[in-house]
């Protein structure tokens, strides 16, 4: 039996909390995470990235600086993980780097998506071939460029005779529906943690609501929840994708302005219910999942106890668990995905799922930056 090939995946999600790195062992169709590591962004860089996520002054200058800086931090995260494993850098076939998303505008004739984290810098500092810029080829082929995790979810989690929903609850939540008959569907369901994080940051100066504890102190405001769900994105047909530039603090404040005084913890509780209900609606509205038996959750939302309870309550026919039960810890699924996408690219295999992104066909994704 041949030895596995190792690929290292890097991503920083829309929550901007830092870099996730994972080494994926690929041996034929067998995939396993060998090691993983998380590295937070320095506060100054995180603040700079948050500023760049919205239109502002002198953007090109600031973008160029941030691109190199993020690249350096991605390279450091990769080397730090490799050192922890005891592997030599040359044991890694390639790095797959998602980068840091600053804009995602998938609609219209000039649709685009922008991720930074200079792959030239990553390849130079690590001495490892780097694959990056995965999303734009799908957009060029008429797709949304997102979500890209569906192919990996099928490769890692699909099982015969089991209908499974895989939900990544990061800043934005995305879902993959895996049918026992081979169909793979998926799309962004809407806000995951992004609005909850923004609200608790404003009200309590905390980065996130640990375990949903603050939300537990509040009550759902039904009229407010209904107002949230009236946003046309939720009724839009797939393929669809979105980002925190759409479901933003401004989006939230505009809706709240019509409701007078609402207790801050009640807003938090209602935002959590928005995430749970929009995910549940996505599953129950999908005919392919009529016989679904399990929901596997990954991303930061998997650690929010109240959110997991609400998903289980709204989806009583499904076994709700995190992806650890299927073999990959929920914190490392996205990083492992981009390791897998790098492997696909180097093998000349497609990385997108056209039924998910809306692309006209399957495409090999990404650009290769040799060591």
What's a quick, concise take on this entry?
The chain has 371 residues and is an alpha/beta fold. The protein has 14 helices and 12 strands.
* Distance, first to last CA: 28 Å
Q: How many strands appear in the DSSP assignment?
A: 12
Number of domains: 2
* CATH top level label of the largest domain: Alpha Beta
**Percent of residues in β-strands:** 15-25%
Global shape: globular
Major β-sheet annotation: 7 strands, mixed
Question: What does this 3D model show about the protein?
Answer:
- The chain has 14 helices and 12 strands.
- The chain is α/β, with parallel strands linked by helices and 371 residues long.
- The chain folds into 2 domains: 179 residues, ATPase, nucleotide binding domain (Nucleotidyltransferase, domain 5, 2-Layer Sandwich), CATH 3.30.420; 177 residues, Nucleotidyltransferase, domain 5.
- Strands 1, 2, 3, 4, 5, 6 and 12 form a 7-stranded mixed β-sheet that branches.
């Amino acid at each position: 039996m041949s030895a596995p090939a190792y690929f290292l995946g890097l991503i920083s999600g829309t929550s901007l909390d830092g870099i996730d790195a994972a080494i994926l062992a690929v041996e034929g169709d067998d995939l396993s995470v060998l090691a993983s590591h998380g590295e937070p962004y320095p506060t100054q860089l995180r603040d700079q990235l948050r500023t760049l996520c919205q239109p502002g002054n002198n953007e090109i200058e600031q973008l160029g600086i941030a691109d190199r800086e993020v690249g350096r931090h991605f390279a450091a995260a990769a080397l730090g993980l490799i050192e922890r494993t005891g592997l030599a850098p040359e044991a890694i076939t390639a790095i797959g780097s998602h980068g840091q998303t600053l804009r995602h505008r998938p609609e219209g004739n000039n649709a685009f998506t922008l991720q930074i984290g200079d792959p030239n810098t990553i390849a130079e500092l690590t001495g490892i071939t780097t694959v990056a810029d995965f999303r734009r080829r799908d957009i060029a082929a008429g797709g949304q460029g997102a979500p890209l995790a569906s192919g990996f979810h099928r490769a890692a989690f699909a099982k015969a005779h089991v209908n499974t929903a895989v939900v990544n609850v990061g800043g934005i939540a995305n879902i993959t529906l895996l049918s026992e008959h081979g169909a793979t569907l998926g799309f962004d369901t809407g806000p995951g943690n992004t609005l909850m994080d923004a609200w608790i940051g404003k009200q309590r100066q905390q980065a996130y609501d640990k375990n949903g504890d603050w939300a537990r102190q509040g009550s759902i405001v039904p009229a407010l929840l209904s107002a949230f769900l009236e946003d046309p994105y939720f009724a839009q047909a797939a393929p669809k994708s979105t980002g925190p530039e759409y479901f933003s603090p401004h989006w939230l404040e505009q809706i709240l302005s019509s409701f007078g005084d609402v207790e801050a913890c009640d807003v938090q509780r209602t935002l959590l219910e928005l995430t749970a209900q929009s995910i549940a609606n996505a599953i129950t509205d999908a005919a392919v999942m009529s016989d679904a038996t399990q929901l596997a959750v990954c991303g930061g939302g998997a650690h929010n106890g109240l959110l997991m309870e609400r998903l289980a309550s709204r989806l009583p026919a499904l076994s709700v668990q995190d992806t650890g039960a299927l073999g990959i810890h929920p914190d490392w699924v996205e990083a492992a995905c981009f390791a897998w996408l790098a492997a696909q690219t180097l093998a000349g295999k497609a990385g997108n799922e056209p039924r998910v992104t809306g692309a006209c066909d399957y495409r090999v994704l990404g650009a290769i930056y040799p060591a």
